[in-house]
Amino acid sequence: MLADAVAAESYKFLRQRGGLFWGFCAVPLGMLLFNLMLDTWIGTRSALPVGLDLGRQVVQGLGLGGSAFFQIFFAAGAVSLFSGEYRWETWRLLTPRNSRANLMAAKFIVYAALTALSLLALGLGNALHTLYAGLLGAQVALPGGAFPLHALGTFLTSWAELLVLGAVAALLATATRAMIGPLIAAICFAFAQQMALMILGPADARLHWFAAFPGMSAWYVRAWITGEQIMPGVFAVASRALPGILFLLGWIALLGAAVLVRFQRQDLPRE
Amino acid sequence: MTALIEAHDLTKRFGAVTALDRLSLSIPQGGVYGILGTNGAGKSTFFRICLDLIRPSEGSVSLLGGVPGDTARRRRIGAMIETPRYHPFLTARETLTMLALASGVRDAPVERWLARVGLSDAAHRKVHHFSVGMKQRMGIAAALISSPELLILDEPTSGMDPVGIQEMRSLMRELADKDGVTILLSSHLLDEVQRVCDRVAIFARGKLVSEGRIDLLVGGREKLRLLATAPAALLAKLGARAVPDGDGALVTVTRTEAPALLHELVHDGVDLVEARWVGGELEKFYLEQVGHAG
Question: Model pTM?
Fold first, then answer.
């Protein structure tokens, strides 16, 4: 019966063009167009950077899910998906046909699939613009041996971070039965983490508790996977990255469970 | 008589408001069952509990032999609750396809149901732009798309034109008589309810105030009103069985006895101008019941 709910949800959401485009297509498409225009503009006026690393560009693209700016769009997609039935009062059409757990799980699955595709499109878009830059004269280095691990690890981490964002949006949507409020709150959630990350910094040993925040965990885990410096001369270490992975998974499980419990117990006299 | 829905001491409170107050009711399988009541009497709350949209504060309800929370049982129900709402970005055809998928029905007869409710020409249009009457028709198609055993219709003819109302009445009787679907109907159009329903329950302030077969509920109350060219002669012939009513007479007689009475009057030379049943309207009975409860 979960398969029925997923089939119905995907059939429905793929026809919700506004939510689908702005939530999950605008970011990779916009980034690709922006990068291609930038390559063209720079390429026709001066020399493009020498030594573009194709693998590094793809990994950077996959890591864009951690950007608060791009999370605005993913938050919009999530809220559109999770608030829609309340906004249009259509739970009454769906809840008699499948279990509430299945209906809500189907929304998570569709959101997860779309964010995964969106992230992959970001990585692919970066690859395309790098190759395009190569055509315009930049020297493009092929991916090294560590690329698959870096790409997979970055993808999974960004994906997990976006799943936490989706779960936050789902919980807010279910709790408030609204659309605008959860959207604003989800965006604030993304930006608050980004600002805290910038102000407090991840390497401060006194702020271990801060590592429990999903944005911080994801940022640290990505740095550990790719081996990049988090501060000048400071590298991420496994002893803090591995708990970060657990924090991310824990947030997804905790928030997801809260959404399911809330929705299971929710009266729908009016959606 | 097998019961499809059985409610026992069902109570639902929304804060300080008691929408259902220890309601006990048994709805049998087969036919069309009407639920009547004023606005706020608890009809929609009862339907929503049956569909597991809301949970009772106290008491229990049995649905097709199980609890409303059982999805497999709920899937045997089709429902249209209050004004139907739809996803604004889906067409009529897409809406039915999506709902069929959610119900686990692949290759649902979407076109057949659209045709049956008269929406074939609008299949490609977004439901959001439909008129109220068209949305009602769409709601019935949505309720029927999974071929349910029990159909719950809350004000299905609201906003429909007279032709549409007549078509819906025919469809409901057809579904009940030919397809064996049990229909649970709520409507404020009491004349329609009397025409289409076999049994009714009347709710007032969340309580059940009356329940039973319509003919038995209102049957004992109707009288035969006769009008003749000579009213005095008519009253003289009828004697104690009749009382004057304007220029006619109200006769206490059963429907089975009526033909013999009319034959007797004609045989005795009474020139009858009109004979019709009065006082058997559901509306009068309903207003009395609701008035007593209030």
Answer: 0.86
